[in-house]
Write a structure and sequence with these properties.
Blueprint (H helix, E strand, L loop, with lengths): L9 H13 L4 E6 L2 H11 L7 E6 H10 L4 H9 L7 H18 L8 H11 L7 H14 L8 E2 H5 L8 H13 L8 E2 L7 E3 L2 E3 L9 E5 L3 H4 L6 E3 L6 H7 L3 E4 L5 H14 L2 E2 L4 H13 L20 H8 L14
Parallel strand pairs: 3-4, 7-8, 7-9, 9-10
Antiparallel strand pairs: 1-2, 5-6, 5-8
Helix pairs in contact: 3-7, 5-6, 5-7, 6-9, 7-9, 13-14
Length: 339
């Protein structure tokens, strides 16, 4: 356990407080004069420190080191000096913009199209105290630099920043606002609420972000009945269409897709093919006509098609054929034809 009130660190903490309360700066310079100071500072920063030497200390990086030790920079300064870190209202207003610009600049985001509006929003409405702003804004910029408006790789909020991205947390608020200004959201930027929610059903069982689907070629279907009926091949079941967990496991795979001959089935198949670049299996206009003829001959009562489906990207004749025939065919109806 590190003793923050060690005399070797007295000047270090004085400079940290002065920088936080002085405004406009996100780092300070500290002279390491002797071996004792170098040893204590090395324990704090978790790396070897030379002496004599001058170190440039980022408030945001220092806060990260203190969090690894179970505390925060404002909390340590309050403990060491016996009073909380504070600034006047005028000082806060004059320095917040500089702090936010520094954080974005450090991560190559200062000239992003959304940056100016985000800075103004956080400064006026972010509800983050000035002492905490350098650390939180720096962490926000770190996270935003890792995200893209439309992701192909996924993670969870916890994996990015522990519980600091839980709903209501200051960091979650300002990162969420940046995503909104980008025209996206958490999920489209590749961040799920957690790793385990909404696992995807496959022939390997339910898979989460922590799992790997070993197959290189995957058959994507709508109904779990195909799993229990023994349709061959590694399979993924998407009852409600393409989910983020499914995207994670389909990325880079060779995909064949089958679904219902319904408006929802055509829409889901279009989306899956657009994402994966895959192909269909037993989903042509000819397959539909054959299924309808066979099922009617067997006396199967098929549901009525009341809405014209959207155009099928893989067969320009399918939507018109379905609209003219006026019947829907589900995967359960054609199980025997898929073996």
């Amino acid at each position: 356990m590190i003793e923050y009130d060690r005399p070797e660190l007295a000047e270090f903490w004085r400079l940290a407080r002065e920088t936080m309360e002085g405004g406009g700066r996100s780092a300070f310079s500290f002279r390491v004069e002797d071996a004792a100071t170098a040893t204590v500072l090395g324990e704090l920063l978790r790396k070897p420190i030379a002496h004599p030497a001058r170190r440039q200390i980022s408030l945001a990086r220092l806060d990260e080191h203190l969090r690894a030790h179970g505390s925060t920079l404002p909390a340590v300064l309050e403990s060491v000096h016996g009073k909380p870190v504070g600034m006047s209202t005028d000082e806060e207003a004059s320095t917040a913009e500089a702090v936010l610009k520094f954080s974005l600049r450090e991560h190559g985001l200062l000239h992003a199209p959304w940056a100016a509006e985000w800075i103004e929003h956080v400064r006026r409405y972010g509800k983050i105290s000035q002492p905490a702003l350098p650390m939180i804004s720096f962490r926000a910029a770190q996270i935003l630099a890792q995200l893209t408006p439309e992701a192909r790789r996924w993670t969870s909020r916890f994996e990015l920043a522990g519980d600091e991205l839980d709903d209501g947390q200051p960091l979650a608020r300002i990162v969420g606002k940046a995503l909104q200004l980008m025209g996206t959201d958490w999920e489209r930027a590749g961040v799920l609420p957690d790793v385990y929610s909404n696992p995807v059903l496959t022939s390997q069982g339910y898979l989460t972000l922590n799992d790997t689907f070993a197959a290189e070629q995957i058959l994507v279907v709508r109904s779990p009945r195909l799993l229990e009926s023994g349709v061959p091949g590694p399979m993924m079941v998407l009852p409600t269409g393409l989910t983020t967990q499914a995207k994670h496991h389909l990325d880079g795979k060779k995909v064949r897709c089958h679904n219902d001959f319904t408006p929802a089935g055509i829409r889901a198949t279009n989306e899956i093919l657009a994402y994966t670049g895959g192909s269909t299996w037993w989903m042509s206009a000819a397959d539909y006509r054959q299924a309808v003829a066979t099922l009617i001959a067997r006396g199967v009562e098929l549901p009525t098609l009341n809405t014209r489906p959207e155009e099928a990207s893989w067969d320009p004749d399918l939507a018109e054929t379905m609209a003219t025939t006026g019947l829907m065919v589900t995967e359960e109806h054609v199980l025997n034809s898929l073996f």
